[in-house]
Amino acid sequence: RKNLKTTYIGLMKLVGEMIPGGIPEADFEELQEMLTRGIDAMGDSMAITFDVGTDDSPPFMGKYVIEVKDQAVFEEVLQKELKLMNEGEMLADLYKGFGMEMDVEIDDDAGTYKGVKISAAKVAFKTSGDDTMQAQMFEMIFGDGIDYCWAFEKGHCIYTLGSDADETIRELIDQVRAGGPKQVGSQMKAALEVLGNGDKADVVGTFNFVRYMEMVAGFIAAIEEVDMPELDIPTESNIAFAGRTTEAGNLAFQIVMPKEHMLETKSVFENIIPKIKEQERLKRQKQKEKAQANNI
Questions:
Q1: Which of 68, 115, 131, 160 has the fewest Cβ atoms within 10 angstroms?
Q2: Angle between helix 132-142 and 209-224 (nearest 10)
Q3: Is CATH 3.40.1000 the right assignment for the domain spanning 1-181?
Q4: Dihedral (CA of 189, 193, 199, 204) sign
Q5: pLDDT per residue of the chain (296 residues) written in tens, 0 to 9
């Protein structure tokens, strides 16, 4: 928990230094207090998953299951953080420094599922200024906004975001109510095996570079308005990582890339680089033809 506080507060300091004028001291102290209260209300375990979306939805979906000791405080902080994204609020001003404007709608009683109250929020994004490429990127990433849902069950906060947030939270409520997964998933099991004593680490996770590059290729295709062929590269492995707390209170990370994933990554570059070069050639050709047509 101490590492989590240090990480979040350090991140906010870094972000504040990146925007014109930075974060006013009073605002930073308020933000630090809010983050501290939220983290102190957490228990000792947390599971997070981010997935790449489909062609017909925003490109990511997130799932959180967080053990909580104080539900009232945790939910208060969660809602306050969302409200601070509204126009004129602290986080809104922070994001505006990066050319982003937001509007947040919160529905504290969006529905119930098997007796569990579900709350929801919609965060709509738009870009300020005349940066068309940035606007296209935001639309590609966020669509018409990000849907959030959260609920509390058996001492856990269940939190989802993305296009299927409402459907996904119902699935997670069932899982938590049933006591959670009965066995370790195959991908996490493989990660624990290659990490060595991974089950003793404070943080364990996986990252799939192939799927990440598929998402990036989709961004490029949308922003550049080109028809990027699908990578369609099979991937069965992941990069595994583990974080362990040192005696100095820092978090030391171990990262392992299995040979199988290295070969899959190699296939990505062998596959995508020729396609990108071909798309760049076609784009230059179209620009040349357009210029010639304008001169006629």
A1: 115
A2: 130
A3: yes
A4: negative
A5: 666 777 777 777 776 676 666 677 888 888 889 889 999 999 988 888 887 655 555 557 899 999 999 999 999 999 988 888 776 676 776 677 667 777 889 999 899 999 999 999 998 877 765 555 666 666 666 667 889 999 999 999 999 998 789 999 999 999 999 988 777 778 888 888 888 887 788 889 999 998 888 777 766 666 666 566 666 788 889 999 998 877 776 778 899 999 999 999 998 888 877 877 777 787 788 888 888 877 76
